[in-house]
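Title: Prediction job returns without error message
Component: structure pipeline
Severity: low
Priority: P3
Assignee: unassigned

Description:
Job completed but the reporter wants confirmation the result is attached to the right record. Sequence as submitted:
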Amino acid sequence: MQGPKRARVGSEMGDIGLITDAAMIVRDGKIEAVGPQDEIEWIAPADADYCDAGGRLITPGLVDAHTHLVFGGDRLDDFEARSQGKTYAEIATDGGGIWRTVGATRPLNTEELAKRASHHFDLLGRHGTTIAEAKTGYALDRDGELRSLRALQSLRPRVVPTLLAAHAYPKDQDPEAYLAMVCGELVPLAAREELARDVDVFVEEGYFSHEDAERLALAARAHGLGLRMHVDQLADSGGAVLAARLGARTADHLEHTGADGIAALVEAGVAPVLLPGSVWGLGLSRYPLGREMVDAGLPVVLATDFNPGSSPVPSLPFCMALACRFMRMTPAECLTAVTVNAAATLGLETSHGALMPGMAADFAVWEAEDYRELAYWPDVATVHGLPGICYNLNFR
């Protein structure tokens, strides 16, 4: 599979540039050439080392553009309560939800957080992910959020950190004082020390308001950080329209976003990041309008929302399977959504997400012959070999 050095929209999302009997030449971690084998072997160096993929499918390494890798503990109690019919809000009221994870995360030092984040990233890697965005948001105090950001530095450049201190208002702090600290201290520190590329905010009733999001957006812009937003997950509160007005880099979730929100995202050029794993994880049935967003010309992205509560899902192929079945996206559109389009939201469109000369030799080899198997047999078409194996080889 080849691809462009930009996000794809509309009908372009279904054009994945499939090459059969393909070959690549890789030198020093970059692709020198890619194309049909009978063409590439003519230009391969005589002293090249060869690596035979045995007819297996090769794709760009998958890019997960929305994850929560830094946390302690688990939410097994929440999971059991949900199986007995309790809702997200009821579990939170009973002391579960985000606050349960905050209690398990705050005591951990930077080294312990880094080990856990690395373990979680390895889980993603078993399913073909080679690049991921990762959010903080499970400490909800100044020092803990900074520890989480610093823990993610050990995973760079494979992980792109995002500051999500605006994940929920902490129960042990005054809300106004907390938001003022996030905007006035954490955002400037994250920018000055280059600890994050973006900030994020969870806009939902009982969490952060539209006005709160505007304050955070102004702070981020003042310090050169981008804005990502959790919106319209539990209800259509106008979050997509807000993300468009604030010029967010991405609007994520969008389970309840309707036609007006889609139109606003199109006009503003905001990329939708859709998270079907969280719908499945919460036992819900309302998925984002993926088909409508593709048809409207949006650069749709799929991501796992990997987290200990609503989406303990490390597999992008599983999310592709959900998108095909419940969001009426095609397998080709799903593959585009987890490669080139996802890479573009992380500023990596010139290096990752596609197999083209000059780009990183960042690819996954699958136990599959047809790209549609990734969504057809989710987690059966397992990764045979991950990038790095052939980085210093000329590969075909």
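Comment from assignee: result matches the submitted record. The domain at 62-345 is CATH 3.20.20.140 (TIM Barrel).
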